[in-house]
């Protein structure tokens, strides 16, 4: 396991626009160095590093929307080519494990991306710091995340930065992947997924052994998919995500063996 990293957080100074501009210029240079990529349009990266709580400048929300899809497609291409003999079900598990909020949030922490984000929401700092401390003792091979739920803002940052590269490279998915792949390491492999069975798979196996019926229902709520798990007609857990596979995965994580066994 990698040694714990001490992260610092550069909070945007209050009522100092000139200093803020200088800080963002420094952040852009730092992230370009991290990515080993020079932006033709640096405004894209500035936007990717701006939270919606920060007024007076466009936030990363539009880029995050693009990055969610672009990263998903890039990972899809990768797993399709990496595992030519593997069925779609297993490919979906590998893809979901690589683009989940839990995975991307850990990418953001590992590379210290959050400290470059300008925002006016101090509560975010507390949540991110708590999460960063919580995951320091995790195994790098952990596939589905730990006990503490990742703050979505961390995954959003990775997606928005990926989108900034994607747009800046004239929407070239291959170029984006070449830049972003190192950021995502370690890539979750099929072996890692099989060594740590997906929560939903474990749920079905547990219930099958105990003669229980599992039903997972999905529906849309705005731009997110909600997945709810029922065992023998009883509601057990629910989760939401912008991607159906991730919503299902996190709903499965909420179904502890103890709860399922207690259902009569």
From TrEMBL:
A molecular function GO annotation: RNA binding
Keywords assigned by UniProt, alphabetized: Endonuclease, Hydrolase, Magnesium, Metal-binding, Nuclease, RNA-binding
Pfam families for the chain: Ribonuclease_3
CDD domains recorded: RIBOc
Keyword ATP-binding: no
Gene3D superfamilies listed in its UniProt record: Ribonuclease III domain (1.10.1520.10)
Cofactor(s) needed by this chain: Mn(2+); Mg(2+)
RNase III domain mapped to chain residues: 28-170
Membrane spanning residue stretches: none
SMART domains in alphabetical order: RIBOc
Highest rank taxon of the organism: Eukaryota
This protein's name: Ribonuclease 3-like protein 2
């Amino acid at each position: 396991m990698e040694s714990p990293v001490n992260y610092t957080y550069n909070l945007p100074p209050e009522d100092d626009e000139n200093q803020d501009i200088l800080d963002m210029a420094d952040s852009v240079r730092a992230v370009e160095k991290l990515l080993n990529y020079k932006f033709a349009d640096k405004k894209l990266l500035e936007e990717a590093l701006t939270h919606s709580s920060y007024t007076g400048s466009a936030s990363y929300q539009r880029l995050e929307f693009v990055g969610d899809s672009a990263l998903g497609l890039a990972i899809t291409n990768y797993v399709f080519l990496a595992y030519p003999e593997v069925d779609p079900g297993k490919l979906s598990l590998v893809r979901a494990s690589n683009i989940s909020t839990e995975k991307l949030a850990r990418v953001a922490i590992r590379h210290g991306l959050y400290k470059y984000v300008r925002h006016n929401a101090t509560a975010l700092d507390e949540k991110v710091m708590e999460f960063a401390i919580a995951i320091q003792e995790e195994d790098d091979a952990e596939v589905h995340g730990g006990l503490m739920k990742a703050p979505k803002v961390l995954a959003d940052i990775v997606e928005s930065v990926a989108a900034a590269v994607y747009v800046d490279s004239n929407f070239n998915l291959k170029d984006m992947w070449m830049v972003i792949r190192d950021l995502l390491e370690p890539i979750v492999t099929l072996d890692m997924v099989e060594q740590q069975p997906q929560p939903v798979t474990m749920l079905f196996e547990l219930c099958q052994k105990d003669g229980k019926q599992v039903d997972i229902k999905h529906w849309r709520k705005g731009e997110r998919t909600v997945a709810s798990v029922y065992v023998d007609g009883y509601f057990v857990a629910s989760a939401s995500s912008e991607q159906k596979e991730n919503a299902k995965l996190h709903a499965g994580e909420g179904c502890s063996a103890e709860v399922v066994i207690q259902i009569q």
